[in-house]
Automatic annotation (TrEMBL):
Belongs to the metallo-dependent hydrolases superfamily. Adenosine and AMP deaminases family. Adenosine deaminase subfamily. This is Adenosine deaminase. It holds the Pfam family A_deaminase. Binds 1 zinc ion per subunit. Residues 14-354 form the Adenosine deaminase domain. The active site is at residue 211. It catalyses: adenosine + H2O + H(+) = inosine + NH4(+); 2'-deoxyadenosine + H2O + H(+) = 2'-deoxyinosine + NH4(+). InterPro entries: A_deaminase (IPR028893), A_deaminase_dom (IPR001365), Ado/ade_deaminase (IPR006330), Metal_Hydrolase (IPR032466). The lineage of its organism: Bacteria, Bacillati, Actinomycetota, Actinomycetes, Pseudonocardiales. Its EC number is 3.5.4.4. Keywords: Hydrolase, Metal-binding, Nucleotide metabolism, Zinc. NCBIfam families: aden_deam (TIGR01430), PRK09358.1-2 (NF006847). It comes from Saccharopolyspora endophytica.
Amino acid sequence: MTDVPTADQIRRAPKVLLHDHLDGGLRPETVAELAEQQGYDALPATGSDDIRRWFAAATEAGSLEEYLERFTHTVGVMQTAHAISRVAAECAEDLAADGVVYAEVRYAPELSTLQGLSLDEVVEAVLDGFRRGAAKARAAGNRIRIGVLLCAMRQELRAREIAELTVKYRDAGVVGFDIAGPEAGFPPTRSLEAFEYLRRENCHFTIHAGEGFGLPSIWESIQWCGAARLGHGVRIVDDIEFAEDGSAQLGRLASFVRDRRIPLEMCPRSNVHTGTVPSVAEHPIALLRRLNFRVTVNTDNRLMSQTSMSDEFGDLVDAFGYSLDDLQWFTVNAMKSAFIPFDQRLALINEVIKPGYAALRSEAVFGPVADHTPALA
Ligand SMILES: [Zn+2]
């Protein structure tokens, strides 16, 4: 079908999110309330409206530094188990309300230890929040399965410790590992020992690469560290050239990424806001989709980028005229690329995602049906 999906259909379509930062997705009113409860007075605005506006201004930042400044304050109010659990619960509820049926949300536990929480306590608070949030969402009729990716900060030297924490909690809701933070100057091989440890432990991990730095970062992530997915990976286009007839010529690294079906966790709005890409319409996601890379669509930071999965899909529909078939393709790509066991990914694809899109397609023909929310196993 070629009909353009409506905003309402996009919201109701089952969606899968692999790249979302817990500290980038707080509700502004929660930031305001937690700051007040905790006597946190470093916020540059007071009251949830002003706080919302200040965070929204990050979308005009145009520089990574100004964009990243916002995280000082979200992390600033995430220093108690209660606060972290609340933020995680609201994250699960917000994603479920937006039609996300499966999510992997990432967080660097070392960021929440400023007031004495241990790394274990931070992880347990996140897991507790996700459990509570998913249960509350379910009671409201929105089913979501949500797991945690633990991040190490690439400028610090705690990657091995966080990798061990990932293995420790892998049967309790932690689904994998990542490194986050400044990419330029902190290549992934700096954390090589942690990646080698995770590989010996048969543990899944992704790496932020090809956002703030180019091909060498992507190459190290895949060929040295063994990343299963690439966080962003947008700069892989630097290894694609065009012949005079317009046909694309892939370099060896781009070919490898495509041949091995290495998932690209693309975050269009975030890339625009950090100045990586001039606009969504100029985002290489359309080219990479056309060339059949395993592209997925993600939010990165819902608060700082004023976005949601529905907004990201809506932008792509507006910019590239994508249909429900395209949105299903991105969604199935993401589900195939998740870090939960393969049989569980298949169950979500066959029992939730495909029936969900099929119902939306039939709606385009027969008109809306009362409730086609598919049951989630
Ligand atoms: Zn990210």
